[in-house]
Every structure is written in C-alpha cells, then in structure tokens.
Amino acid sequence: MNISIIITQEEHYKYSQEICETIELSALLRGTGIAKRTPEYIQKKMESKDAVIALDNGKFAGFCYIESWEHGKYVAHSGLIVHPDYRNLGLAKQIKSKVFEYSLEKYPDAKIFGITTGLAVMKINSDLGYKPVPFSELTTDPTFWAGCKTCTNFEILQSKDNKMCLCTGMLFDPKEKPKDPPKHPFNIRVLNRLKSIKQALFLKK
C-alpha cells in the first residue's frame, strides 16, 4: 500500500459523499452516537483547507477535519474515519497525528479539544498530550453543542445542561507544553470503568 495523508484540495471534493457514508456506517456498526455531517459540509471543510485525507493511489482510505470555535480560541478534530479496508493498520493514529500537527501550525494559540466515546480515540489523544477534562473546560459556543443534536445521546447532554454526557472530554493546551511521554498516561481500565459508570447512570430506566 502507498497511503498518503495530505491537506485537502479541490480534487478531493469527489470523496465527500463516500466520507459521510463511511462515518455513518461505522457509527451504526458500533452502536454509538454521532453528529452527522452532509457532503456539502465536508466539502466546505475541504475548500477552507481545514481537513486532511488519506489516499491509497486514489482510493479513499481515511479522513479528518478541523472546526474552530470562539474566534479560534478552541479547535476540535471531527469526523475521524478510516475506511474498513484500511483498519487495524495504525492509519487512524497517523491521520490524527497529521491533523494535530497541522492544527498547531494553522491555529497556534488555540486549545485543541474533543469529545468521544471511543477508547481507541482516547488512546491516540492521550499519546498526543491531551488530558481528560470536564466539559466546563471546553468551548461554550452553542454552535458546537448544537452539532450533537443528531447524536443518539443528545437528550442526556441536554438533561445535564451540556456539562456531562457519555462522551469523555479531552483537551490539549499548547501553553502547557507537555513533556514526552505525556503527563497524563492513558489507562484503559480506568476509562472503561468510567464509561460503564456513565452508562449505568445515564441509561438506566
């Protein structure tokens, strides 16, 4: 395989529909909530060069895009996806690392954050220097939280006034300049336990 991970350009607009379908199918198979995006939205991210795409000799292999909030005070990486044909190869980590480094260049003063239920994404984030944080440390921009409306867990988020959900919030502050290895090592047992506690609290009948 000859996979390249590059900043999106006009020639990549044609992959927008496939990207959306792959993201949605992956969420359905995992049984997790997801904020849906349209091909038009994905293309806008490509146009503004706020996205990276992984290609294997022209075949779509993976994708991720950047969103900025509060006039660039915060940025988030969304839509991280790897095509089923390219999973279990470490490509997700490569894509995440690429978009992370690109974000530091394009938005050098921004805090980088994310919310996720995926342990694999938490592990990647932790390796990059993110730390788990309460939602109160993330953006307060209502537009960001409105993006969760299509998630199956949105009612939980609303009931907690956007302060808590099944997702875990993670944050990287460039001003902290984390050391290598990161100050907050990933502990899958702890996060698995946290996830199960949240599910017991929020999903109980």
UniProtKB/TrEMBL annotation:
Q: Where are the transmembrane segments?
A: none
- InterPro entries linked: Acyl_CoA_acyltransferase, GNAT_dom
Segments forming domain N-acetyltransferase: 5-151
Question: What is this protein identified as?
Answer: GNAT family N-acetyltransferase
Give the classification, highest ranks. Answer: Bacteria, Pseudomonadati, Bacteroidota, Flavobacteriia, Flavobacteriales
